[in-house]
Amino acid sequence: MDQKKVIVCGTTFGQIYLEAIKGNPDLELAGIMAQNSERSNLTAEKYHVPLFQSIEELPEDIDMAFVVIRSSCLGGPGTEIAKRLLEKGIHVLQEHPVHYKDIEDLAKIANRQKKVYLVGNLYKHMEQVKNFILCARELNEKNELLYMRAAFSSQVSYPAMDILLEALPAGVGLTLENQMECGGFQILTGKMKGVPFTFEIHHEVNPKDPNNNMNFMHEIEFLYAAGRLLLSNTFGPLLWYPKMNTDIPHAIDRNYPPYMLENSGICLGSMGCERFQDVLETIWPIAVGQDVKLMEQTVENRVVMGKSLQKEMAVAKLWNQITSEIGYAQIVDRTVFAPLPVDILKGVMKKETTSCM
Asked: pLDDT tens digit string along 264-315?
């Protein structure tokens, strides 16, 4: 199969796409489309490709474009760029979030042009997220889901809705009941697919450091009759906490039933907690690579595009409902992020251990 010529639009998060494409033998990176900034020029030099500043400059033989520029719902030109690329006869994968009406409009253009349009979302391809969804689905078949709690930053609220839709039992609808603001968080309660929930959404923006104001990404907990399934972070670990059911009579003769011999908490899969360097250089490019591969497969078989976009529309509508409820982010003016070495915490624990001896 001949290599397909592709471009990446945008050089901020677009660099993750560039790394993913670099490792794909079926694709040839034909260029980068971005503004004539120092970063974009340095990125083009790094990957030894031309820098295009407009669609008009693109060669006529481009097969695919990965649009990693803020969409219209975030005030960026990404959606308009995706539209013009599709009209030019180029397959497009656009990075989330995208408004559901824009997905609908772009899908119509893609169908008219007999091209592919997809929305990219790397988080659903991450190992611990996939494991959480698999375990939740298994538990849903065998146990009653009583309640769920999800905490996430508003910047990653779109993939949060995607994860929840995949992990929850069959059903429809999101009903919001109560809302309050607390310490930079929007707290929402209601029911999703009939399951009671609490969402804790970190909703602050620091204009001095807009890309580094997420205190966490995704923490999702499902409470079952038999225990709790906790995705403690997007990167893991994934934990299972069986419900404590202390059978005091058995303690007399120590003839415990099997469930009393289980650990009070179990790590499912790897511990996660990888270095941030590994996230940027390996984990995210691998996850994006799955979206890139899906794009290739859909280009070969456009029939599956409809099903993919139908699901994406459901995610986008949920996201729109949530973001409409919480409104604009609170502007904060804090000191620019300064890392705290973990050795400080380890040192405190070591001192405490020594003092107890």
From this structure: 899 998 877 788 899 999 999 999 999 999 999 999 999 999 999 999 999 9
> Fold for domain 127-234+238-271?
Dihydrodipicolinate Reductase; domain 2 (3.30.360)
Collapsing DSSP states into helix, strand and coil, what is residue 147?
A: strand
Cα–Cα distance for residue pair 299/293, rounded to 1 Å: 10
- CATH superfamily name and code, 4-123+294-302: NAD(P)-binding Rossmann-like Domain (3.40.50.720)
Query: pLDDT value at position 357?
Result: 43
In this structure, the strands spanning 218-224 and 27-33 are: unpaired
Beta strands in 249-315 (DSSP E): 266-268
Confidence of residue 356 (pLDDT cuts 50, 70, 90): very low
Do 32 and 43 form a contact (C-beta atoms < 8 A)? yes
Nearest to 93 by CA among 279, 323, 316, 293: 293
